[in-house]
Structures are given as structure tokens and as C-alpha cells.
Design goal:
The complex is a heterodimer of chains A (269) and B (731). With 269 residues, chain A is of the alpha/beta class. Chain A has helices at residues 12-24, 69-79, 117-128, 145-157, 210-214, 230-250, 260-266; strands at residues 2-3, 52-55, 89-91, 103-108, 133-137, 164-165, 193-197, 200-206. Chain A contains 7 helices and 8 strands.
Amino acid sequence: MKRHPQGKSDISRRKFISLSLGLAAGALFPSPRPSLSAPANQVAPTFSQFFFTQIKYEGGDWDPNPQFLDSLMEELEVRTSISGMKERRLITLSDPDLFFCPLLYMAGKNEFDPFTPKEREILGRFLTYGGFLLADDAMGAKGFGFDKSFRREMNQIFPDQELKRLPPDHSVYRSFYLIETPGGRQRVNAYLEGITLDQWTPVVYSQNDLSGAWARDRFGKWIHPCVPGGEQQRASAFKAGINIIVYSLASDYKKDLVHHPFIKRRLNL
Amino acid sequence: MNWNWNRIVIAPVFPLWVILILLFLGLVLTVVQVWTIQKRLGRPKAILISLLRLITLLLLVSFSANPSLTVRKEKKIIPPLAILVDRSQSMSLSGKGGKNTRLDEAKAMLLEGEKPLLKTLRESFGVKLYAIGESLQAISESDLPDLRATGRRVDLNEALEKLGSANSAVLLLSDGNVDWNGNKRKAPPLLTVPMGDPKGYRDISIKEIKAPPIAFRGRPVQIDVVIKSHGYSGATVPVVLKNGGKILTARSVPIRSSPGEEVISFSLTPEEVGSFPLSVSIPPQFGESLTSNNDGHIALKVYRDKIRILMVSGSPSLNYRYMRSAFRNDPTIDLLSFVILRTPANIINVPLQEQSLIPFPVETLFINELKNFDLVIFDDFFYRPYLNLNHLESVREFIRGGGGFAVIGGPNFFGRGGYEGTPLGEILPARFSGKEDYRRDRPSGVKLSRLGTTHPMTRFSSVGNGHQGVWQEMPPLDGINLLESKSSGTVLLESTDGMPRPILVVGNYGKGRVSILGTDYSWKWYMGMLAQGKGNWAYLRFMERMVRWLTRDPSLDPVQITMPAKKGEVGREMEVNIRVKEEDSSPGSKRIVSFSVFNPEGKKVVSQLRTTAQPGEFLGSFLPEKGGIYKVRVETPEGHLEESWVVAEAMEGLDGFPDHEHLRMIAETTGGKVLSSGKDVLREAEIYSEKSKEHFVEERRLPLWNAPYLLVLLLAVLGMEWYLRRRGGMI
């Protein structure tokens, strides 16, 4: 027990926040060097936990870019500490394994059949209590095709919520890279949309055909050109992909106070 | 006693005029009788017979007038007098002249001298002698010499209530340190005789210590100390605040008036949770009449306002996300987390300005600020690229000092030699079992070990599911660490496939607690139960209890001890309420193993424990024999719980000033007087004696008509008349 010299002191919570901010100031100091005792040549066997699970639904075109995964997982492995499986899992909404998927992916071009009430109930429960869904419109026509059907289903599952443009300070734009536009094969929207419940956004929706920008053939060539931004637009799509994956695993971690000064400084805010 | 036969009264049974008519008729009949029988018997005999008849008639008529004799009885009584001798502790202080105590002074006044006051009073009064402390106690004269001033402060109101109004007067010998509410009441006047010498009294005392009953760690708490002084105006005295034997601070306080009160405030910021015995003391001053009231004690109970967690995750993962969600939704938790987003092996393809990554401030966290946390969590975190042995040593010291440490497993935590041979390797309650440290080929369910069925971290859902509770319904874990418990570890959860392997192991190190959860798939307990439609409560509850057990949060204590809110007193039995948590108080349960009490010197004292009508509630009691901090300890199979309680020193908080002004006010309120000597007492007592010398006690009425001798007289008169008539030949 310590006596406070003036009888005045910050309360503990404030001190705790101060500590967080103080730690943020640690950016000025050099990063810790790795321990000399760490053997550089030892590589742990890889036990990936992250994998893409794609929804196979009725009607429409559920798999417009079947070859998107390898390039994204390679990028994830090289840039981040996350080890992702290159194996894509396919699932129907009535499959009970749905609840064990780190990231549920749904893509399409055309209108698809309405989900059954049971499928809606399962997907709604999964998303309401912590699951995550990335939806990717490969057509990119507002109010038509996949967009029309997807909005209909979201409206059925979340009647009190609607897909909204995610604000520029949303964690999905800051979870790994600091990005302003999400990129994609096409540039329909300069933003992502989503449904946010409390602090968590379980549904992120892109109309820029992200997977079209990630898709690569077996010879390593990009399958689709990115228009109009070219390769820079493709790079942005990869950054968005990595950010979305990191967000699905770390949630709004980047909203913690400890990150604020860094992000503000780098964004010149 | 005097008897006065001075009144005969009548109470006619008929109206008076009826009686007069009857009387008149009787006289007429008598005259007629004389006139009729004188011819036969002669005049003298006729007159005699008629006179006898007249007497008979008069007697009968007089009966209808119902005469009675009134008798008054008067008695001289000795007026009662109650003498109250104050035996409270302040009467043990020095009296006039400083040689004897105030109680000795009172005894001498009553018993000593050429003609002792008590003896003299007994001649005129029915004296009853009482000793008065916090209660009234009748004593005999022979008890008086051995009377000791050990009682608590006098409650005069209660004493007078008990005495009632039978006494003609009450004589109080006291120094004025009595409780009196000032109400006028129907009670005999109080004659007060002041003891002690107000002019010669010098004292500085800790009158009161005001502090909140509970404080929170890290938040300043104000402690106000009221200092009372007599005779030290202008002096400056030091006031020392201590925690146990350790001086926290000292301040000088100028005494501005005499008598007077000074209030000083201390501000403390408790840095640890627990119960702290604080004392405030003033060194004895020169010439002080009483020094044992220079100390005061309180027990300050310090709680944590938030549980502060530092979590380091080896990479973004579902484990991290669901744990983060659980901690963030708990308002009692402050979470500071660091997730390794990029390892030294990763390649950066963009300038710093386009990344959101921040440095991992290990030096600040693990060397400078670790003490500000309650719990450190390593979530599948391999330390070597980031932490050196000094940092791990710092974590070990943090745990030894009472911090919590949780390891969430995964492929990285025990990989590449793990923490073997490091400061953390020593404190972990498990090691990996062989060449393999992690397995992800065969999903495995979990079950509670024997100890896991009773441990607060895992025993939270036994209702309706047997001892295994909800754990048997949990989905299987895809990956587990292949652990082997050390002798210091306690296995709570085991795998269910093949040979049981420890999944959750807990242990203690120093004052701290450690746990290892050997899987990176505990998040499946969240989503898996959700998939079954059973909600996520089991995962959230497990995480909450893991945090609270590791941080020794009182909410997980198997029992709760409720101490009395008031400070204890020496010689007064105190009771402690003990409640066993609902989930542990099943019928027939004997969760409490023992109830022990330790005095300020650490010695065990006699105590009792009994059950109450409420299930799961017990009442412990003990009798404090000295002042200071007592420790109450309740032991259960799950551990022990201790609480502290302050028992005031005999003179603690006592103001020994002879308050003669207070006695004067009491005497005036009751219509009495302040008497300063035995002569004054006798003079005043004489007045009350005179007032109560004679009293009418009784008035009786004796009816005359039903007296036996009247009946005999009546029969005699009638008999004589009959005899005379027979002699005269008239019968």
C-alpha cells in the first residue's frame, strides 16, 4: 500500500488507459530484437486453423471464381502470422459443421433461390452469436442478380438491420493494412458494406468481385484483368482480403486504445 | 404506626324518613304498651318491660341506618435513596490531587471518615447501592471496596429507566463521562457528585477514525482522523499512520484550542487487494493523564475495481476472438491484448504508412508495468522471437507475488522446446509428454477429473447432468497439446480418447496461480454448444471462472464471511456470519471443515461454530480478550478464507476528561443539584428525608350492625323481657 503524495490520483481505470496510451508511445523505441537463443533453422510443423468455407446454395452461380484461394492463402502466409489452409471447404447452410467455420464465404453472379426457413434460422444464429460471412458479388450490378438475392436474404435474416456502408474507420479497413478502397476485379463501390451488431460486423459484403481479382490459373497467371485500376487495384483486393481475414479472427482489435496514436499518425489524422 | 378511631358514619339502607317513621311508631307502641300493662303489673314493671322492648326496637331500627366505624392507619416510612457509583473505565483515571483514582475518590466519600456518608445516609434513608457501567448492577456495601473501574461508558438513561420512580432521590458519583439524552422525565431528582479534577486533566486522544468500509485498489481513499485534546493548546503533535508495523506517513498537527478537536485527512492509494490493519497513533506527550487512547485501529478492506488482463496471442485466431469477446463483455475486466500479426519471417510489401501494425513494447510491458496487471495470458504464444529470459523472470516474479498466469495451448506454445529450462518452465504445472507436443489427427472430447468435479473453475453446471455436468456435451477438440501433469499440478479436464491426457491443469506458485489449457480449440465450446441450440453460456462461464480463479477473485470463494460492521469490544462476544455458496450447500453437505480465530498475537482462541435455520448458513462466535486485529479463518476442502476484525483497545477512543459541566446539566434537568462534598450531600439529603417522613397509608370501615355482640345484646334484651313477662303471668 502506498500513500499518494497529494491525496489525488487518477483512478485505476484511467491509469489503465494511460498505460495503454503509454505503451503506444513505445513506437518511438526500437522493436525488440529476437532472442539470440532462438534457433533460426527450426521450423515448427504447420497446423493451420484458418480455412475458407464456401456456401453451396441452390440456383444462380455459387462458384464464379473457383481458383481464387491459392493466391490469397499464399499472400496470407507470406505477409501475416496466420497460417491458412489452401483447401477450400464447401458447405450447405443446413450442415451442422457450419458453426465450426472461421470464415463463411458466399459468392455469385446471378439471382439464387431463396433460403429455406431452417437455413435462414441457422445462418442467423451463426452470425448473431459470433460467426462471420464474407459475401462477394461477381456481377456487380446493383439491384440485380446476386446483389438482389443477397440483400433479400439478409433482409429476411436481419429484418431490423440493413447492409450499410462501413465507415472509413471501421476495423476491417485497419486490421492489417491501412486501406481506403477495397479493390477487386471491378470497381463498383469504393467501400465495403456490412451488417453490424453491437461492436461486431458479422457480414461484410463486396460488389467488386474480390475473388475475381484473386483468381489465378495453375500456371500462375491472373485469370481476370482488374479494371479500371489494373494491378494496383488487384493489390488492393489482396490487402482487403487479408484485412477481412484478420478481422474475422481478431475482431475489432485495432479499435483498442493502444493502436490509436499509430494509426492516426500514419493516416495523418 | 398510629390508629385513629375517630369517625362513625351511617349509610341507611332505607330513606331516612322511613326510618324516622319506624322510630316514631316504635315510641308510640311503647307508650301504648306501658299504658295497657301497668294495670296488671304495676307501673315500675310495665315501664321496665316497655323499655326493654324500646331498646329492641331501637336496635333493629338502627340496623337499617347501617352504621360503620371508620379507622385510619398512618405509618412513618423511611424514604428510599439510590446511590449510583460510576464504574466505567474513565473512573480508573486519576482523581483530585492525582494520587488516587476517581473511583477511589467515590469509595472514600461513601465509606471513610469519622462518620462515613453511607452509614449516615442509612439512618435517614432506605439506601440501595448500585454500580453502573453500561448497565445497572445492585451491590452491597461489602462489594464496594473491591469495585473495579472496568465497565463501559455509562448509559444513564437506561439505568434510570430501570430504577423507576420509587426513590425519593438518586445520588450519582461520577466523573461525568456518561451518556444522557437530556430528556426530562418522571423520575426522582439526580444529586450528582463530580469526581476527578478537570483543571488538572491533560490528554490527547484519537477520538475517531473515519474511513469507508471498503476501498478499491488504485483509487485514493480518504481517512479522516478526529483528535481531541485537553490542556495542549498551542502545541504541535505528530500523527503517524501505519499499515501493520510499517509507517505509511506522518503529519504534524497544531492544537489550536483546549479543549478542542482537530480533524486531519490522510489519502491512501491501496495497491493490493486484501484486508489491511491500519493504525493511527500519537506519541505520548509530556504530562499526559492518559496515553492508552493515543492509538486507533481500523481494518481497511481493499477490493479490485477491475481485473486487469494482459493477453498476448501468437497470431489472430478464433481462440483469441472468442476469448476477447468474453472478456470485453465482462464489465469487471479491463483487457489489454497484443496479437502477433506478423512474425520476423513474414515479408512486408508496403511502407510503414500503409500498415496498422505497432511495435510490441515488451520492455515496458514485462519489466515496468507488469505489476499493474492481475492476470497474464499467453495464447499459443512462442516467446523466443520477442521475449528474453529477463522478461520471463519478470513474469515469474509477478506470479510469485500473487499474479495469475494462464497458458492457452496450441501448436506454438510448447513447440521447439517450449519453455523448458526457462523461468516459466519451473512454474508451469505441466510439461509436454514426449516427442510430440501437439496433435491434430484425432478429435477428442473432454471429461472432468475427480478433482475437476469440485474445482470452482470447472464445477459450474452439475445440476441435472451428474458430476460431469455440461462438459460431456462439449464438442470434441480438433487439436490438443500432449501434456503430462507435474506433481505440482492438478488436472481438472482430461481427454476422453484412449489414455486420458490432461487438457486443463492448474497449480500454484508463490502467492499466484497458474493454469494451462492444452488446446487451441476451446472456441469450439462456444460455437459447438451454439450449434446444438444450447447457447454459449458454458464457454463464457468457464472463461469467467478461469479468470476469477486465477486472480483469486472473492466471488469464487466457496464461503462468504460477514463480519459485524461495528468495531468489537473486549469482553463482548462477537458473531460472524458464514455462508456457503448455494451450489456447495447441498443437504448433508459438510463443506466447512473448521472455523478458527486468532488473536492479535497470532494465538488461536476459543471459538464456536453452529448451524442456523437457513441452509448453508453458520454462525461463528468468540470472545475477544484483548484489543487489536483478530483474524477469522474458515477452511473448506476448496481452500481457506480469512477476514480481519478490529477489537478496540480498552481505552481506545476514550475521552477521560472529567466532564463536571455535563453532570451539572444532568442535575438541573432532573431537578437535582451538584454536590461537591459529603456535607453537602447530607444537607440536601435531609431536605428529602423531611419531605417523606409521614404518609397516610390506609382507611378502613368496620360495619357495626353485624357485630356478634349486638346480636347477643338483642337476644339478652328480648330474653329479659320474656322473663319479666312470664313472672308477671303474661305468658
